[in-house]
Amino acid sequence: MFSTHYAKTGQLLRLNLRRDWLKIVFWLIGLVGLMAGAAAKFDGLYGTKKKR
Question: pLDDT (tens digit, 9 = 90+) per residue, 13-39?
Answer without folding.
Answer: 999 999 999 999 999 999 999 999 988
